[in-house]
Design goal:
The protein is an all-alpha fold. The protein is built from 14 helices and 2 strands; from the N terminus they run ααααββαααααααααα. Helix content is 71%, strand content 2%. Strands 1-2 form a two-stranded antiparallel sheet. 42% of the residues are buried.
Length: 361
Amino acid sequence: MLKKYMGNFFSRIDWQLWVAVLLLVGAGSLSIFSSTPSFFVKHIVLFVVALIIAVGIMMVDIRSFFVSRGFVFGLYWLIILTLIATYFFAPVIKGNRAWLSIGAFQFQPSEFAKVALIIVLAYFFSKRHIGIARWRVLAVSFIYAAIPAGLIAIQPDLGSAIVLGAIWLGFVLASGIPLKRLLVVGGVFALGLVLAWSFVLKNYQKDRIVGIFNPDSDPLGVNYNVIQSKIAIGSGGLLGKGFEQGTQVQLGFLPESHNDFIFAAIAEEGGFVAVVLVLGIFTWMVVRLLTLGLRMEGNTYKLLALGASALFVAQCIFHTGSNLGFLPVIGTTLPFVSYGGSSMLSSMILIGIVQSVYARN
């Protein structure tokens, strides 16, 4: 009986999505092994743990949880309390209070805030999508995103806060907001940017934004990371310099080559061909997520898949944009490719949730 159940269950899994995820992890692992071998083993261990958790989620019928108001908002407020605890009790690491420690383990609550926000917005918009034109509906949904985004911004972790805003915007656009309301939302965003510039952003964050428009200024200071990244990407050419042959990576000129600048590391050693392959696989993964979402019954589940797609696309845009010098460096990982236990685990949890629902929907 168990064998028959397992066979039927795994026949309903979308293996194309899993293949895309595994290929992205494989590409990231090769780059991490080449650039920073000391992180390689830990990266593999973290991935295996995340994979086991994702498979465990797949094996459970979790649909009832995501239509339960108690579960959805209980999870959301638990994350909010964790973010508050992070601000007051987390140690300062690289100038941020962003990591909580449990024994020998550290985790970044902002990564799990992204998952919680996707779940609460999927629930909220599934109940309110007919009234999306009402200001009250838009305002309440914005507050759900603004609370964790504000708590994360003061850590300060501007990158994760912006990603939360992008997730909210993705839900709003997908919910069929009227054009007039969309223009007002754009105006509110513009006002928010002005207020953030005046009262929230630190001087070094402002310098990074200004540096986009004057890329040759302060080459040993605020623009150093981006300049080294563009040198790495440009020098890779069509086929790259070869595995473990990238000068910017191997000589340590490219900072955070295993994490924030892994796109540049892949471009230098694998060239344009490797970049196209990685971005092509990434696009394939997002398309599969959206396809599964469209096939599901129930707006909550469709919106869960949409939210996961919005998260991955936003992080990919911010990561590659900052590596190319088009966007400010805000410390955003490339999902499934960059090193980072919390990022990997939260991303795998979303894949497990989508696969669990799809297999039974």
